[in-house]
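Example S7 (structure tokens).
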């Protein structure tokens, strides 16, 4: 079930206004998939550098336990010719510590490319790569 879709404004590094795309979808098993997309019109901090902050923000907003969160980072294709960069979809996992506050702090993110089996396991359609 799609919970939210669209642009998401956030405060990036040094207080810079930043924007990403965010699709939030609940799964039947209680987990929530967040697809965070880097936008070409983002004037601030990129989603890669903001991943831990954004994950914490999403958990706070949706009242999620970190174990419920599945974070996917999407970087759309950019450029042309020699400068062309293909679209990427990466599963991001975090370590988290909930001892210091009611909303856990995320740290040490790790990225790995999403494979067909990852999409299948989540019950989601694999996007065109």
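Recovered sequence:
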């Amino acid at each position: 079930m799609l919970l939210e879709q669209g642009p998401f404004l956030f405060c990036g590094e040094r207080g810079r206004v930043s924007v990403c795309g965010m699709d939030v979808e609940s799964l039947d098993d209680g987990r929530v998939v967040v697809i965070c997309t880097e936008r070409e019109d983002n004037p601030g901090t990129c989603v890669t550098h903001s991943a831990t902050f954004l994950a914490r923000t999403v958990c706070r907003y949706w009242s999620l336990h970190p174990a419920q969160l599945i974070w996917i980072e999407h970087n759309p294709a950019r450029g042309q010719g020699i400068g062309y960069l293909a679209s990427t979809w990466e599963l991001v996992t975090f370590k988290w510590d909930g001892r210091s506050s009611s909303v856990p702090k995320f740290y040490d993110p790790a990225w790995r490319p999403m494979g067909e089996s990852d999409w299948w396991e989540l019950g989601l359609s694999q996007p065109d790569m």
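Notes on this example. The mean pLDDT is 89.
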